[in-house]
Amino acid sequence: MTARYPVSRPRRLRSLPVLRSMIAETSVQPRQLVLPAFVAEGLSEPRAISSMPGVVQHTIDSLRRTAVECADAGLAGIMLFGLPEEKDASGSGALDPDGILAVALREVRAEVGDELLVMSDVCLDEFTDHGHCGVLTDSGLVDNDATLRAYAEMAVLHAEAGAHVVGPSGMMDGQVGVIRTALDAVGHSDTVILAYAAKYASAFYGPFREAVNSSLSGDRRTYQQDPANLRDALREIELDVAEGADIIMVKPALAYLDVIAAARAHTDLPVAAYNISGEYAMVEAAAANGWIDRERAISETLTSIRRAGADIILSYWALEHARR
Ligand code: PBG
């Protein structure tokens, strides 16, 4: 018998589309996707966000319609960010039952019922005039424990307004525990906590600042994580699990695929990842210049985040991708 070479031919399984799809290890299903959405107070028309082409600040009406589209497309959820007309030092709009986020949650929940998970961002940065995620001490640092009291109140407000899932994103120490305790105390023991466990101080949040009309000067390095650190992420995850998180999230996604993989190995809770504004903007900008194939780049991006170990992806492409 003649020696045959090469003995192994991996290309054999790549030769036909049906073969390739039969052995595909990873897929991105609509139910694994969540659309983040911005809703602004006092808008009469949706307003474009220039650094995120295709994403808008919604009116309540356009948000309601988008939520229905998400439900129809089979998405898992919609994550709401509220933009108040007036911001102040304590972010008081965040605790107002008639504030934009509470109103939007009630409206969206009434529209979609339990067909789509209604999720809320629990953080003060959209509501503070200084743009930080919490209230400040006299010396200008973010006051951890005073901020925790606001988060607990905010989470309860969101649950009462109809949120199925609350997402504390401010990186205050102890935020998951105080929110769990506060929710349970008023009978919302079924409200899910999606904990932004490992959230890095990232340059890739840039376009989000425009999206939420943020006035932040400086950065968030005294509370968000240093991009140099992996073990710090595992420690944050452990703390959030101990405090009662139901799902833990890694954010951003693309520059942190190793963190997603480590998170997946470190906990048995579902792992979410946030494919953030700067990741969106990079692909959209390159595609607009004709430098990359937009649809393939989107699909490859979402697939890579799933392959790294994320069960759930928050992405501005969620609705478009689910429809494809
Ligand atoms: C904080 C929050 C941010 C994002 C989500 N929640 C901004 C930040 O921490 O600076 C960023 C999301 C994105 O960039 O798409 N409320």
UniProtKB/TrEMBL annotation:
<feature type="binding site">
    <location>
        <position position="277"/>
    </location>
    <ligand>
        <name>5-aminolevulinate 2</name>
    </ligand>
</feature>
<comment type="function">
    <text>Catalyzes an early step in the biosynthesis of tetrapyrroles. Binds two molecules of 5-aminolevulinate per subunit, each at a distinct site, and catalyzes their condensation to form porphobilinogen.</text>
</comment>
<feature type="binding site">
    <location>
        <position position="220"/>
    </location>
    <ligand>
        <name>5-aminolevulinate 1</name>
    </ligand>
</feature>
<keyword id="KW-0460">Magnesium</keyword>
<dbReference type="InterPro" id="IPR013785">
    <property type="entry name" value="Aldolase_TIM"/>
</dbReference>
<dbReference type="GO" id="GO:0004655">
    <property type="term" value="F:porphobilinogen synthase activity"/>
</dbReference>
<feature type="active site" description="Schiff-base intermediate with substrate">
    <location>
        <position position="251"/>
    </location>
</feature>
<dbReference type="GO" id="GO:0005829">
    <property type="term" value="C:cytosol"/>
</dbReference>
<keyword id="KW-0479">Metal-binding</keyword>
<feature type="binding site">
    <location>
        <position position="316"/>
    </location>
    <ligand>
        <name>5-aminolevulinate 2</name>
    </ligand>
</feature>
<comment type="subunit">
    <text>Homooctamer.</text>
</comment>
<dbReference type="InterPro" id="IPR030656">
    <property type="entry name" value="ALAD_AS"/>
</dbReference>
<dbReference type="InterPro" id="IPR001731">
    <property type="entry name" value="ALAD"/>
</dbReference>
<feature type="binding site">
    <location>
        <position position="209"/>
    </location>
    <ligand>
        <name>5-aminolevulinate 1</name>
    </ligand>
</feature>
<dbReference type="GO" id="GO:0006782">
    <property type="term" value="P:protoporphyrinogen IX biosynthetic process"/>
</dbReference>
<keyword id="KW-0627">Porphyrin biosynthesis</keyword>
<keyword id="KW-0350">Heme biosynthesis</keyword>
<keyword id="KW-0456">Lyase</keyword>
<feature type="binding site">
    <location>
        <position position="236"/>
    </location>
    <ligand>
        <name>Mg(2+)</name>
    </ligand>
</feature>
<feature type="active site" description="Schiff-base intermediate with substrate">
    <location>
        <position position="199"/>
    </location>
</feature>
<dbReference type="GO" id="GO:0008270">
    <property type="term" value="F:zinc ion binding"/>
</dbReference>
<dbReference type="Pfam" id="PF00490">
    <property type="entry name" value="ALAD"/>
</dbReference>
<protein>
    <recommendedName>
        <fullName>Delta-aminolevulinic acid dehydratase</fullName>
        <ecNumber>4.2.1.24</ecNumber>
    </recommendedName>
</protein>
<comment type="pathway">
    <text>Porphyrin-containing compound metabolism; protoporphyrin-IX biosynthesis; coproporphyrinogen-III from 5-aminolevulinate: step 1/4.</text>
</comment>
<comment type="similarity">
    <text>Belongs to the ALAD family.</text>
</comment>
